[in-house]
Amino acid sequence: MIETHHLSKLYSRGLHALRDLTITVAKGEFVFLTGPSGAGKSTFLRLLLLQERPSEGDIVVNGHDLSKLSRREIQEYRRGIGFVFQDFKLIPNRTVLQNISFVPEVLGVPVAQQRRKAFQVLKWVGLQHRMSAYPHDLSGGEQQRVAIARAVASEPVLLLADEPTGNLDPDLSLEIMNLLREINSGGTTVLVATHDRELIRLVGRRTITLDQGRVVEVA
Ligand SMILES: Nc1ncnc2c1ncn2[C@@H]1O[C@H](COP(=O)(O)OP(=O)(O)O)[C@@H](O)[C@H]1O
Ligand SMILES: [Mg+2]
Rounded CA gap, 217 and 214, in Å? Predict the structure, then answer.
């Protein structure tokens, strides 16, 4: 699903955020990306989303060489990826239901179909009774569940999560991981960046460890 070859990212200050990374994530796999703060985890995810471009090397996702995509293909490619952030990134002045329907609405998906899918994913995360609430009325754990529901509503082939439990306490963190595992058992490839070694130990999946932009361990 993801292959990188000698991938490097050098930001303008002359510091290597990533250095010569050759990594493979198989289709259907659940993989952790870990390492201390500044190791390059977020940079790696941003490269996968084409929010940044590599300085050297290449990235192939689901058979697409990311450096060769046209503008239109980039839009299409991004739609196939679900993304979950540490700070949830819900739209504050839209309800839970409207947050989940936002992208389908922009894409012109028929309203009935948007709603059906939104109800289905909300039910799955156990928040159908909160569909008319606004993000600020929800706890952090609930907001992250809405964000996950939104990410899966588009049925992504790949789900990327950047410190999805960084703002949550350990019980809620495990709950979020269980949702990600469930998504994975439905066939979606999942890549989770986290510095939380304890959580990784509890979940127990293949783990790629970065330090100062290099792979230091695969376990
Ligand atoms: N936009 C940027 N411009 C310059 N340097 C950056 C930028 N983003 C990240 N970095 C640097 O790249 C390195 C890796 O950062 P990051 O990918 O955020 O690591 P992590 O997510 O593992 O904490 C750090 O040294 C960071 O300061
Ligand atoms: Mg980060």
Answer: 9
